Amino acid sequence: MKDRSTQVCQAQAIPTDGSEDVSAKSMDLQAAAPGAIGSGATIRVEIVVTTALDTASTDTILVVNAITDSDSELGSHATIGPIGEITITTDAVAAGTRFVFNFPQKPQVAFERYVGISMEPASSDLSAGAIDAWILPN
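Given the sequence above, the corresponding structure tokens read:
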């Protein structure tokens, strides 16, 4: 169920400088409903574009990673693994477009208390865009 406790991005601007950006919020796995997330449950990320994702000149890719940290701010996070890519063309990705990605079944690192996502553009050609994102059980 999508609600405030599962939402990790709310109209969050995507990085336009080519650097990685992490979700503004994290999800606390210890506070999640028992059996909903964790302990072998499949986790998905739902992303909805709130401001069109656009590129200045050439097509590019926005890589979305699952991340984890012992701190809710995700300041020293570890990457669980890549979960998806969003291709952004000069035609833009329209507001309202929805993407669903699954967390890796074989994580690169152990889950810590908090999970979130990071967005990593393949180039600095992104010129605009924002997303909402939720971490949800499958």
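The radius of gyration is 14 Å. Try to locate this feature in the token string yourself.
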